[in-house]
Structures are given as C-alpha cells and as structure tokens.
UniProtKB/TrEMBL annotation:
Domain Response regulatory: 14-130
Phylogenetic classification of the source organism: Bacteria, Pseudomonadati, Pseudomonadota, Betaproteobacteria, Burkholderiales
Residue positions, PTM 4-aspartylphosphate: D64
Residues annotated as signal peptide: none
Keyword Phosphoprotein: yes
Key word Phosphoprotein present: yes
SUPFAM superfamilies recorded: CheY-like
InterPro entries per UniProt: Bact_response_regulator, CheY-like_superfamily, Sig_transdc_resp-reg_receiver
Protein name: Response regulatory domain-containing protein
Organism: Pseudoduganella armeniaca
Keywords linked to the UniProt accession: Phosphoprotein
GO aspect biological process, one term: phosphorelay signal transduction system
Superkingdom of the source species: Bacteria
Amino acid sequence: MNAIANPSAGTLPVILYVDDEEGARKYFQRALESQATVLTAPSVDEGKALLTRHGDTISVLVSDQRMPGANGNALLFHAWERHPQIVRVLTTAYSELAQTIEAVNQGRIHRYLPKPWDIATLRLEMKQAADLASLRRRHDRLLGEKLASRRREVLANRIGLLYGLCLADGPQGAALDAYLSGALCARVAAAPAWLLDDYAQLASADACRAAGLARAVRGHLAALDARGAATAQGLALLAELFGPACHIDRDGAAVLTEPAVLAEYLDGSPDAAVSARHAAWLALLLWLARRGASVLSTSSAAGVQCRLTGAGEVPTRAALASWIARC
C-alpha cells in the first residue's frame, strides 16, 4: 500500500484504486499520474483503512471485484454507507454482471469498467468521476449552508413563540433564561433534513406545535400550584418529574442523565408533539419564576447539573437576540 503525506495539499483530485494484482495497481497509477493523486491498496481491508484516513479528500474509489477475502462490491458498499460523496467505480475482467447490475441499480456504484482498460477511456472516465465528486461536494456545502440558515430562522421563530405564548406574563418571563440555558446544555446542533421542507408549512406547523406546548404547560402549571409545594422543593419536584433519568448528587444538585429532553422543543421536528416531560419542565421553571427562583443548568460529565438559584430579569430584546445567536 502506498501513502501520501497530505492528500489535500495539492489541487489534483485524489483517486483510491484497490486491486490485489500489483501490476494492475502500477498500471493504473502510471496511467493517471498526470491528472490525479492516486492511492493504491492490495485488499479490501487496506482500502477501508485508507478510506478511514483520507475519506474526506478522496474523490473517486475504483475497486477490482475479485480479490482474496472480500470482493470489490463489499468495499464500494462500505464507502457508500460512510463516504457518500465519493464516486464509486467497479472494475473486473470477469463477467459477474448480476451483482454489478444490482449494485448500480441500487445507486451504490456509479460506473462499471470492464478490464482490460483502454487508457484514453480510463482517463476520461476518471476525469468525469472526479468532476462529479467535485459537484457533489459543492452541492453538499451549499446544502449545509442552506440548512444552517434555515435552522437559525426556525430557532429564532421558536424562541419568539416561547416568549410570546408562555413567558411574557410578568415575572414568568424570567424563566426564559433558565429554559434556554438548559436547552443549550443539552443541544445536539445537527441540521435535520426536515428543515428543507416548504418554509410556510414549517412555520404553520411550528405555530400549532407551540400552541399545543402552551396548553400542556398551563395544565402542568395549574397542577403544581394545586400541590402547594414550597419553592425549596424545586429540585425534588424536578427529580420526580424525570424519574430514573434524574438523581440528586452528594452536593445537592439534580443531575439529568437524559438531557436531550431539555432541548426537545427547539430541536424537534414541527410534526413531533412535545412530550409531557418537556412541558412539565417548562411549567416548573415558570412556577419557580413566580416565586423569585430559577434553575441554573451546567453541563457535566454525567449529564446536565441543575441547582436552584434566584430568578433573573425578564429578557430584553438584546438578550433574546443574544440567545438566538448562541443557540
């Protein structure tokens, strides 16, 4: 197996060729040395190792089919699952069309090249494959930028809906800082595919979801008021709410071992109803804010650590803008 010190250093595309025949590897490398940086490997396992190290820079993967241990399809399927931006090409001197056609039809292999190669055809095919890989990367980059932008819009709208629907009533507004702090500690900042849905539909579904959350929170808040518990029992109420997913540590802090629920409303799909636990968490924060108390959330190795603290001020417009930027 050959290696390169830094496959992303040059401007040439990187092609990985896997074949157990040393002569074929040398021939492939010489044929393409002027138009690509060629990595080679003699087996599926060593091909996987190179994909692990250089998968972000490899544009094209070409694999022979018949090799000891595992065939080329296995390697190409491996790349399809882990590095979908790589263009995958199968080559063989044998007539194994059934497996090849199935792989092409499933979208796991871009092209089938029979051996022996015509050099001019091989170079053209590799140029086209590298160009396709470049287009895929550009598309993925633009898509990522669009998702990030849409995510910011959705988060801004959700924070605004929270403020308007649940948190703007007098001292309850002070609970917003505690709520957003907890969500930030739990956040998984991925940009899910549902963000690409029609924006008007997203906004409509989100408004209905926020209204459902507000109704649920009011119900939980009324239940808390009816219990007549003392403010100092706030963490005990939190532990009761989360059950086995929460425990009180030796320092008296409540530790949430499944913190994702704290970010559920901000992170979730607009078609997914907010859980009762999440609504109850928000209700607890509102209940505490009415009594001049709040919850301070911090990330820890065990999860999210929560402590009782004094309530802050109702967030200003500038504070809301800061939270939106941070989330």
